Amino acid sequence: MIEPVIYINNLDHYFGKGALRKQVLFDINLEINIGEIVIMTGPSGSGKTTLLTMCGGLRSAQSGSLKVLGTELCGASAKQLTISRRHHGYIFQAHNLHESLTALQNVKMGLELHPDISVAEMNQRSIEMLELVGLGDRVNYLPENLSGGQKQRVAIARALVSQPKILLADEPTAALDKQSGRDVVDLMHKLAKEQDCTILLVTHDNRILDVADRIIYMEDGRLAKAPDLQKVS
Amino acid sequence: MLKIIQNLTRRTPLGWLQLTQHKSRFAVAISGVAFADLLMLMQLGFQGALFDSAVILHSKLTADVFIISPQALNIGAMSTFPRRRLYQAMDITGVKSAEPMYVNLVTWKNPQTRDKKNLIIVGFNPDRPIFNLPEVNSQLDKIKQSDVLLFDRKAIGAYEKVVESVDDGKAVTTEIERRTVSVNGLFSIGSSFSADGHLMTSEDNYLRLFSRQSSGNINVGLLTLNPGYDPTQVVQQLKAYLPRQDIKVLTKEEYIAFEQGYWQQQTPIGPIFNLGAIMGFIVGVIIVYQVLSTDVNSHLREYATFKAMGYSNTYLLGIVFEEALILAVVGFIPGLIVSLGLYTVVGGATNLPIAMTVFRAAQVLAGTLIMCMLSGAVATSKVQAADPADMF
């Protein structure tokens, strides 16, 4: 039996302490299998991003069970969380590229975490990755000289260059126009399929829902039955 | 060790790239550090010059062992002790000769401007030279004449005409203690913090100027040892042999340390310059902290992203310390160059022996490193705030 890439069981999560303690996730149960593309949608404040950050090891789980790539992250130490982050790519709403680094150097940062890769190999793989996202001619550009769509493509290259098993994306198209957004999602889709990478994507953007193998809907901290999405769009 | 070097060559030099991306900001940061270094180097330079100039005369004396009064304060206030002690000192084996030196602070009229100025005057027996100054030793015949002095050509003040005239062989006359004296020769020592320069004459001339001092009461006893005798051992023997209540016996190093100790401990000059150097240090800490914390603040998003990618806090702290190190080293170089220039200017203007020593440069470089690391350590607290879970 193949273990699911992400396995969530009876997960609850609270913000704040004492009298201000507020539950934001209620009894989440979710399994995502290898190679699956899952889009998570729902209104603002429903807890989508919280769940995503917990899967990404940015926030530690408090109660229940959260296994990512077979590692239990519930109650994990800060150090364990840091190490777990090295196994997945993360794409944010903003590109968050380092302004002082060229496209190539930014992508290379995704490889420097893995000590067994030589400098020559890091450069080669980063250049190949930039070529894959269609920026082979912009390798030595600083972010300030790239368009919004190009920057997000560099961010994707950075997230995928180490060939992670999981790609987590939080509203990756929100800051882009329709065409660039479409291109970015198609690119993520294509690369993930080639690398057999699992994708969990949080979005409000109904235009990109068609790439999903499965859509899950979240409301008020619970996974709910999705309303008719065709009607929404 | 090999692994660390390997890691360094793999690593993208983020700190360097961040600092150098904004050229003007980098230039301001560097000049801030350079300024702090300059302050420290100047203050420590003045302090060093003071302590060096205080013993400028001592370093020219040929004697190995020195006898002074226990009431002596500094070269301008040596107090006196009985000359008899010198004859007693001759009883110790190894002591080759024992000569008296008379020394005091004296006010004379600058022959050129008629202003009153303070000089150190030294009286000794012209038949037994006590200085390793060839210029003085070749003019001993001159000071055998009554009321004839030799004058310090490196004294500060308006003395060009005096020097010119004496060089031409024309003696210059002036007044000391209402007595007319004549300058017939020149030598070079320089000024110290207590006096503008030095005068030399015979003990007879000296005693004529200081009529209240008798020849039986001397200021410093100069003992020369036969070759092969250890000054420290001779000092021990002298201490045991001579009555302790009216004298102190010192080696040359101890005598120099005694004079410097006076200026260090008995006057506020030492602490003042130390305080100045500390202020430079604090200015540096504040400037570097400002630079680093601004830099960290403007990169919080990127740092949070790196954390989300799996970089540890230690890695991010490394970037801040890398920047601190770069600022320290790059800022030190212009600071050192400018202060070398200022040393020359100040040295030329005051005739103080102000010089850069490797020790002082190393001391200030170490101080700069500590200063930058300290600021870096404070600035890193902001890195902890770069939490990707809260930021995105």
TrEMBL record, chain B:
Write out the entry's keywords from A to Z.
Cell membrane, Membrane, Transmembrane, Transmembrane helix, Transport
The UniProt entry lists membrane topology as: Multi-pass membrane protein
The answer to whether UniProt assigns keyword DNA repair to this entry is: no
- The record lists the membrane-crossing segments as 26-46, 61-81, 272-292, 324-346, 358-379
Q: Which Pfam families match?
A: FtsX
Residue span(s) of domain ABC3 transporter permease C-terminal: 277-383
The listed locations are: Cell membrane
GO CC terms: plasma membrane
Q: What is this protein called?
A: ABC transporter
State the species of origin. Answer: Chamaesiphon polymorphus CCALA 037
